[in-house]
Every structure is written in structure tokens, then in C-alpha cells.
Design brief:
With about 325 residues, this protein is α/β, with parallel strands linked by helices. It has two domains: about 5-180, 3-Layer(aba) Sandwich (Peroxisomal Thiolase, Chain A, domain 1), CATH 3.40.47.10; about 180-330, Thiolase/Chalcone synthase (Peroxisomal Thiolase, Chain A, domain 1, 3-Layer(aba) Sandwich), CATH 3.40.47.10. It has helices at about 25, 35-40, 55-70, 95-100, 120-130, 155-160, 210-215, 225-245, 265-275, 285-290, 295-305, and strands spanning about 5-15, 20, 45, 80-85, 110, 135-145, 165-175, 180-190, 195, 220-225, 255-260, 315-320, 325-330. The longest helix is centred in the last third of the chain and has 22 residues, at about 225-245. The protein is globular, with a radius of gyration of 19 Å.
Length: about 325
């Protein structure tokens, strides 16, 4: 059998809007409080777009930062994978806009719609393209603009206080040393679909949305927070252990766990179940909120920049979210 290539993450970067929305700002728009939001989520502020455009605009800047970090030029990129549930338009997805804006060649470009787990899903897909030799330099992006789809009122506060906008990106290429994406692990359980979802607009409805649906607020995301929390604190440790077991690693071998930034309480519960301190579980949700598919690449970049891990260290990315989907990636940096 032909030996498969190994995939390395050659560069990373992120971009968030300039506009900072503090909990005190939300107090002006809905019946909530800074204390209530921090206690339930750990979030102190988040970034929301002002005049930046949609998710594609954030994705393009994050991609430029990652490409600079990896020292690759536009003509070297041969595939674009974008993870998002908030593309600028219903179709065709932001990957085509990224390809055009960055001046890439006539390369493949597609979107993955897997919500909070989408960046790890995209990383897994990119890894297969490198391993098979079909691609040499892949741009993987997680980008979201949630703020324009939120119910900024007391009715929608349980969801609206949680989400932020942002984008993160990574460059995948053939590894020439020990750096490697060791394994990825993907799961889903669709019976929980409606515990965290956005119903409309939808192709199953004539005209895709109606006045009655708008009046009822069915164009806003809905979440059963208790059910999401219950599943997340179970699935996160499972998929982290799965990544370790697949590579004969123990928790002592792991320098840093970088989870999807859904809720600080979830991360704290995961750390407790894993028997580690929060020093090993990276968190930046207090600054950015839940940026869905963008949260892991943003956190990965900040953790690297803060010296939380270095070359040769083992790290694990882990995600859980809408779908329900969960995923992990074991990486030797």
C-alpha cells in the first residue's frame, strides 16, 4: 500500500470585528444583567459586526492572517474549505467569495455546514486531501456572523447574550517533520436536531418564510440550554478520550485542550470530568462569546500566541454543538 502523506498545520490566524458589545450594552436592550450573563456563561463581552459586511469579510481577513503566518502565497493554495452556518447569502456559500477576494487560482472551494463542530469537520476533510496527495496547500476557515440573526429583546435573551461574530483560519500542508494531525473523530445524533436550531427561512416552506413565521420569531435561533449542557458535558470528555486512545496518549501527554467556546460552565465541567485544571483547558469566551465554527481557530491562534503550547506538544481540539454533532482532533504541533 502506498504510504500516506502526513498533514501539518503550517499557519493560523483570526479576525474579529472592531465593535465590542459588553454585557452592560445588552442591559439597555433586554431584561438581563452583567452578573446574570457571567454567572451562566462566563461571557463579559463579544464582537458584533458594524459595517464590515458578512461572514465572508471576516473570513477573508482571517485567511490573509493565516497565509502570512504560514508564508504561503495565493498561487500556492489549491483548495478552500469554509466552515459556516451564516454565509452572506442563502447560496452559494462564502468559499467562492474567499477564492475571488484572495485572488486564488481556479481551485476547488466549498462550504461545510456543521455549526459548532464545523471547523474540526473541515480540518478532517482537509487532512484527507493532503494524505491522499490530492492537495498540497489547503485553506481551512471557520467564520460566522451570528449577530444579525439574533432576537435582541427579552424574548430572545437566553440565546442572544451568548453569540459573537468572528473568523479563524488554518493552512494545511504536507508535513516534512514530526508535526502532524494525528487523527480526527466525527459524530452526530440527529434526534436532538430541534434542541438547537434555526427553523426559517427553509426550503420546506413555500416562499421559505411567511409573515406568520416572522411574527412568531421562527427566524431566530432556539436553544434548549439544559439539554445542550447535559449532552455537551458528556460528549466532550468522550471525544477527547477517543482522540487520546487512538494515539496511545494519556491526559498527561496533552499540553492543551482547546474546546469550542460554547459556555465557560461547560468547559469547567469538562475539566473536572477529565481530572485536570482549567490551565489545561483553554478559554477565551469571556472576550468573544460563542462564535460557532470560528471559536476553535480563534482560540487555537490565541493559545499559540500566548505560549500555551509549542512545537512538539500534543494538543486536542474538541467541539460539540447543533446537530447534535461533536468532534475532536489530536495534533502534534
Amino acid at each position: 500500500m502506498e504510504h500516506l502523506q502526513k498533514t501539518a498545520i503550517a499557519g493560523i490566524g483570526f479576525h474579529v470585528p472592531d465593535r465590542i458589545v459588553k454585557n452592560s450594552d445588552l442591559e439597555q436592550w433586554m431584561d438581563t444583567s452583567d452578573e446574570w450573563i457571567i454567572e451562566r456563561s462566563g461571557i463579559k463581552e463579544r464582537r458584533w459586526i458594524a459595517n464590515e459586511g458578512g461572514a465572508s469579510s471576516l473570513a477573508i481577513q482571517a485567511a490573509k492572517n493565516a497565509m502570512e503566518d504560514a508564508k504561503v502565497t495565493p498561487d500556492e493554495i489549491d483548495l478552500v474549505i469554509c466552515a459556516t452556518i451564516t454565509s452572506d447569502y442563502f447560496f452559494p456559500g462564502i468559499s467562492a467569495q474567499v477564492q475571488e477576494a484572495l485572488g486564488l487560482g481556479l481551485v476547488g472551494a466549498f462550504d461545510i455546514k456543521a455549526a459548532c463542530s464545523a471547523f474540526v469537520y473541515a480540518l478532517s476533510v482537509g487532512d484527507q486531501f493532503i494524505k491522499s496527495g490530492q492537495s498540497k496547500n489547503i485553506l481551512v476557515i471557520g467564520a460566522e456572523v451570528q449577530s444579525t440573526a439574533l432576537d435582541i429583546s427579552t424574548r430572545g435573551r437566553n440565546v442572544s447574550v451568548l453569540f459573537g461574530d468572528g473568523a479563524g483560519a488554518a493552512i494545511l500542508k504536507r508535513s516534512l517533520d514530526d508535526s502532524e494531525i494525528l487523527s480526527t473523530h466525527l459524530h452526530s445524533e440527529g434526534r436532538f436536531l430541534k434542541e438547537l436550531w434555526l427553523e426559517a427561512p427553509a426550503s420546506k416552506y413555500k416562499s421559505r418564510i411567511t409573515k406568520k413565521m416572522l411574527d412568531e420569531g421562527r427566524q431566530y435561533p432556539i436553544m434548549n440550554g439544559r439539554e445542550v449542557f447535559r449532552n455537551a458535558v458528556r460528549r466532550f470528555p468522550q471525544v477527547i478520550h477517543e482522540a487520546m486512545d487512538a494515539n496511545h496518549l494519556t491526559i498527561d501527554d496533552i499540553t492543551q485542550i482547546i474546546p469550542h467556546q460554547a459556555n465557560l460552565r461547560i468547559s469547567q465541567s469538562v475539566a473536572k470530568r477529565m481530572g485536570v485544571s482549567m490551565d489545561k483547558v483553554f478559554s477565551n469566551i469571556h472576550k468573544y462569546g460563542n462564535t460557532t465554527a470560528a471559536s476553535i481557530p480563534i482560540a487555537l491562534t490565541e493559545a499559540r500566541n500566548e505560549g500555551k503550547f509549542k512545537r512538539g506538544d500534543h494538543i486536542i481540539l474538541a467541539a460539540f454543538g447543533a446537530g447534535f454533532r461533536w468532534a475532536s482532533a489530536a495534533i502534534k504541533w
